[in-house]
Design goal:
The protein is α/β, with parallel strands linked by helices. It contains 26 helices and 17 strands. InterPro entries: Bact_solute-bd_prot1 (IPR050490).
């Protein structure tokens, strides 16, 4: 039966049951009494059934539901990231979580193209127990529309009211769908309220980095203008034609996908401080003259032999290998994506490290407006309708969302990876040392510091986060004061199989096809021709419908977030 709110008369019964459930891990009789009373008081006296099963009676908005049942269970957890290298249960941190909660995890990670794998799973109508994917993915809407995932709010009402205590009301509001339900919860999410509370600590992931020794060897040139940028790539290639017998790659970018290239879209536009809206209207940033000017500079770079073929075909694993070899001179990239490689390089030879410098800028040389944390977060996690055990699934999700779960996955087990040192819970020195020197070994031998990031909440874990050390600190510090909150522009693109969603997919694919062509154009005149054809095709594919949808969503977001 559904877990309904209990009337007052049941307070005594609840208390008796809770006392007898000491195995459920209630921390003290006192606490249990408080919970029972709280539960009873919040009850609406509408339903007098006293036949609720005892476990349901022990549920409380104030006590973790996972403590009710810690018998062994294994969940299949799909991560839509082919680069994810770790297995649960290999390291002491995940072993500790399993020992405590009873939950073991079998990760399912696609071998190649993520979208193909996920679409196959969706088409089969049967999904693994948990699914974690980027908040921007089309597949989320498809899973919700296809009723393949369960509303977290309903699972929580029935099996774990504690979920609402450890989940942020703003984030639940943000992710509430038209049917009034919430199907996914984000990680790394920061609301406008979080900005007020923690904002001065916020940094961005987006950097323009250069290999320090090479950059200094060519005179540490100013790379903020197209001329300075091209000249620096040219000097680097002349002075360092190869790295350990392999050709230098003058510029590294995010991978080119069927939908475009992150470095050449949002990143570059942020570096150029191109506004996201003008006069209250969402602005098509790619049409900005500053953006066209820089895309033409990159076309020139290609003509001058300064864009290596590698960058058009490499995926993240190949890039990581080439970063570790120090083969890139410069990169427009996200710093956390190459942190492991950076640590390794720094251990071998600190002079060959990568440092953040001022990169592409607009004509006024305004400072960049980089993405700070947003309310949408990075990934969202959903629970499948085929989940093995609804109660255990929502309770485990609540545990991961809670301060306790975040602490367990960030610091690990006390005495193993952290201790209370000088009155503060912090990583043991040798553990922190390994983390900075060899992240992939750390993941396998220790497994804390969010090796498992599915529900990481950096606002919670900031209290235990060690001060950044080099070589990571320089890159992080460079972004301070350049990061802005832009939550109101998140999730304004239509997704899924709606008419607007189909238009959005076509526009993305059109951009994906056009990007490399623009860079490979043989002249500025050919660039203009490709560009104008691209704009024409966008109109034909229904750009005006797309724009109207975005504008409407943007206005709704401002209301949701109370932004004037």
């Amino acid at each position: 039966m559904g877990m309904k709110r209990k009337p007052k008369a049941m307070g005594v019964l609840l208390l008796a049951i809770m006392m007898s459930l000491s195995a459920a891990g209630c921390s003290s009789g006192n606490n249990a009494g408080k919970n029972a009373e709280g539960n009873a008081n919040s009850a609406k006296a509408t339903n007098t059934e006293a036949s609720a099963e005892p476990t349901a009676a022990a549920l409380s908005a104030d006590e973790p539901g996972w403590k009710i049942d810690t018998s062994p269970i294994t969940f299949d957890w799909y991560l839509n990231f082919s680069w994810f290298p770790n297995k649960w249960g290999v390291d002491p941190t995940s072993q500790y979580v399993t020992k405590k909660t009873g939950v073991d995890i079998n990760f399912i990670v696609p071998a190649g193209n993520e979208n193909e794998k996920l679409n196959t799973l969706i088409a089969s109508g049967k999904l693994p127990d948990f699914i974690t994917l980027g908040f921007w993915e089309d597949a989320i809407k498809k899973m919700v529309e296809g009723e393949l995932v369960l509303p977290l709010n309903k699972l929580a009402d029935e099996y774990d009211p504690y979920f609402f205590k450890v989940s942020d009301a703003d984030k639940l509001g943000w992710y509430t769908q038209e049917d009034g339900n919430v199907y996914g919860y984000p990680n790394s999410s920061s609301s406008p309220a979080d900005y007020e509370k923690y904002g001065e600590n916020y940094v961005s992931n987006q950097v323009f980095a250069v290999r320090k020794d090479m950059y200094e060897a060519i005179g540490s040139p100013d790379m903020r203008t197209p001329e300075g940028f091209l000249n620096a790539l040219k000097l680097a290639k002349e002075k360092f034609p190869d790295v350990n017998g392999q050709p230098l790659i003058p510029l590294g970018l995010h991978e080119f996908t069927e939908n475009g290239n992150d470095s050449l879209e949002g990143y570059l536009q942020n570096f150029l401080a191109i506004p996201r809206e003008k006069d209250g209207k969402v602005y098509a940033r790619e049409t900005d003259p500053e953006y066209i000017r820089w895309m033409k500079a990159l076309r020139q770079a290609n003509q001058d032999g300064l864009l290596a073929k590698d960058i058009f075909i490499d995926k993240r694993p190949q890039m990581e290998e080439k970063i570790a070899q120090g083969r890139y001179f410069a990169m427009l990239y996200q710093r956390t994506d190459f942190a492991a490689q950076l640590g390794t390089i720094y251990q071998q030879d600190p002079t060959k490290t990568y440092i953040a410098v001022d990169g592409p800028s607009n004509t006024n040389l305004d400072k960049p407006t980089l993405d700070g944390p947003g309310i949408s977060g990075w990934t969202v996690t959903l629970i499948s309708k085929d989940v093995k055990d609804k109660a255990r699934a929502i309770r485990f999700l609540s545990y991961l969302n809670s301060e306790e779960g975040n602490k367990d996955l960030f610091l690990g087990e006390k005495g193993v990876s952290y201790d209370t040192i000088d009155g503060k819970d912090q990583f043991k020195p040798e553990v922190f040392d390994l983390m900075n020197k060899d992240r992939s070994t750390f993941d396998k031998q220790i497994g804390s510091s969010f090796t498992f990031w599915m529900l990481q909440n950096t606002n919670i874990t900031d209290q235990w986060a060690p001060k950044s050390v080099e070589p990571f600190k320089q890159l992080e510090d460079w972004t301070r004061g350049k990061s802005i909150g832009s939550s109101e522009f998140q999730q304004i693109e239509p997704t899924g199989n709606s008419p607007e969603g189909i238009i959005a997919s076509k526009l993305k694919q059109l951009r994906g096809k056009t990007m490399p062509k623009l860079l490979m154009a043989s002249s500025d005149a050919e660039f203009d021709k490709i560009w104008n054809e691209y704009l024409e095709k966008r109109k034909k594919e229904g750009e005006d419908v797309f724009d109207a949808y975005q504008q409407k969503k943007y206005e709704e977001n401002k209301v949701k977030l109370s932004i004037k």
